[in-house]
Amino acid sequence: MIWQQLINGLMLGGIYVLIAVSFTLAIGILNFLNFSLPGLFMLGGVLTWALLGAGWHWSLAMLAALLAAAAVSLLVEQLSYKPMRNADPELPLVSSLGFLVLMENLVIVKWGSDQQSFPALIPDFNLRFGGLIIGTAQLISFLIAVGVVLWLSWFLKTTNTGRRLRAIAENRDTAEILGINLARLVPCVFVFSAVFTALGGILFALNYLQVSPFMGENIGFKGVAAMIVGGMGSIWGAIVGGLLIGLVEVLSIYFFGADVVNILVYGFLLLVLIVRPAGLLGRPISREKL
Amino acid sequence: MSGYQTGVLVFLAFNVIAAYSVYLPMAAGQLNLGIAGFMAIGAYTSAYLSNELGWSMLASVPAGALASCLLATVVAVPVLRTHGIYLALATFALGQIIAAVFLNLEVVGAAAGYPVSEYVSPMVVVACAAGVVLLMVFLSRTRYGLYLTAIKNDATVTDLMGVNVRGMQISAFAIGAMVAGFGGALYGHHYSFIEAQHFNVLLSVFTVLYVLLGGTQTVLGPLVGAVFFTLLPEALRASDQWRYVIFAALIILMMLLRPQGLLTASLLRSLGGRKQGVQQ
Fold first, then answer.
1. Three-state DSSP class for residue B81
2. Residue B164 included in any domain
3. Which chain B residues are Cβ-neighbours of A92 within 8 angstroms?
């Protein structure tokens, strides 16, 4: 049934939206393709699972996982972004990839490389509208994801901090001359993107009831695709891109089977990059910046 | 030489070939994150020709390299419309697509993998790697190497000087892919088995790491990087589980302390290398 698939696609897309927003923050404001984010996505899910296993209350477990992700992200800022922000763009990219490999292997050392099953925290209760079924966990995750992203959009648009962040995105040097305290605001960006992507990891675990050290590679890289499809640096682009990638994935499973998902998702990404590199909602790119 | 030492040496040879397939496009300012896909093209094409059509390795391995080169030339035209990070991501997507296609291609075993009937001995692999290094050193001494450096530094000015920038960029991309395809073809024939899962994004990423950590300023940087970062995890093998943790920590540390890579032009000069006045 096609409508059911569309709903499933949107629900999955909600998680991609969170990751895409994290990437888009880092690239839009700092021009930094932060490949440690898929690792933080994984860390969110795996740490919540581990703390739940240790008997923590779910709220504390999730909070601790989010804080841990934020702490690691600050480390990435100190060691990957800050020393190399004026170098070639591939240097911080590679360094942040080092963090991804580091996090994956630390988790493997501690908990092994197997996929673990995540406890069902939200009772398995399905809402029915007509013939359509929506899982409560799905719906809650989707609402949280979209809510958080809408809040971010509002935050960037109206608050003082948001305005400063947009000024940095426009031109870092000018922003600094105008008295914006970069040393204080840049860590904010890292904390924001870490919390969003780790939240995505937790919601993914809640929905699909599984975590593994490699979940960041599978899901996180599709978040990158979602960001580009929507348009780098654009929050609304991340929302549109995330939902679109979710739909493309679920519909390609429905029509062609699970094996061709990567061909279609990344084919779609390649097509967008070639035909409209700025993405669906992005501003035209200036070559000088890259 | 013990079996283990031979194994490490062959692994090193494959990494060196892969590193140079990333280096050449990078010398022209292109970050190719999809190199594993081109290795897969070379590996599967040559394996298919050897297995099903009974070609000799002498023909099928170069044919694999050529197939990879041809595909790269075809995709380079649209893909090289993108620049910088966009190009890196386009090649990343391309690599994912190629791996996914082979994962579903029944004629070459799909997800079950594909055995290869012919066998390449370790010494041939090492000799081929040495050949690739020599070829790259030769290329870096020609005007072609100079053009690529010029394009990396400033494509517009190079264009004004009358160099065919577009053609050079496409050729660097295609030759890089050809080297990758060559490495992939040898890989399949040496290990007698290939599977699409091997040619994943991490293979591409690690190859890029070898090059960047070795240094892109000189043509020998990728060699140093590949040697150092192939042998290092082997030396750490004693600490088994932790070795990739240590490896990753070293990557971060290296980028922090020596972002220009292990081997730089000035280091090479101070080691008593020959004067490179023209290129500096």
1. coil
2. yes
3. 255
Residue B36 confidence class, pLDDT cut points 50, 70, 90: very high
How many structural domains is chain B composed of? 1
Q: Which of A158-167, B23-32, B123-132, B259-268 is predicted least confidently? A: B259-268
Q: Place B120 in a pLDDT band, splitting at 50, 70 and 90.
A: confident
| CA nearest neighbour of A92 among A38, A43, A30, A40 | A30
Domain-embedded: residue B79: yes
- Which tokens hold the place of A74? 């600050």
Strands, E, within chain A: which ranges? 116-117, 126-129, 132-135, 210-211
Name the residue range of residue B43's domain: 3-199
Q: Give the separation between CA A173 and CA A128, rounded to whole angstroms.
A: 54
B128: tokens are 């081929």
Q: Is B5 exposed, middle or buried (0-12, 13-18, 19+ CB in 10 A)?
A: exposed
Examine residue B84 and state whether it is found in any structural domain, yes or no: yes
C-beta of residue B36 within 8 angstroms of C-beta of residue B204:
yes
Tell me the shortest Cα–Cα distance from B90 to chain A, in angstroms: 6
- What residues in A contact B239, CB-CB < 8 Å? none
Low-confidence ranges of chain A (pLDDT < 50): 286-290
| Residues A97, B205: C-beta atoms closer than 8 Å | yes
Let me know if residue B40 belongs to a domain: yes
Which of A229, A264, A274 should be substituted to probe chain B, the one whose Cβ sees the most B Cβ atoms within 10 Å?
A: A274
Q: Are A224 and A21 in contact (CB under 8 A)?
A: no
Smallest Cα distance from B183 to chain A, Å: 23
Whether the model pTM is above 0.90: no
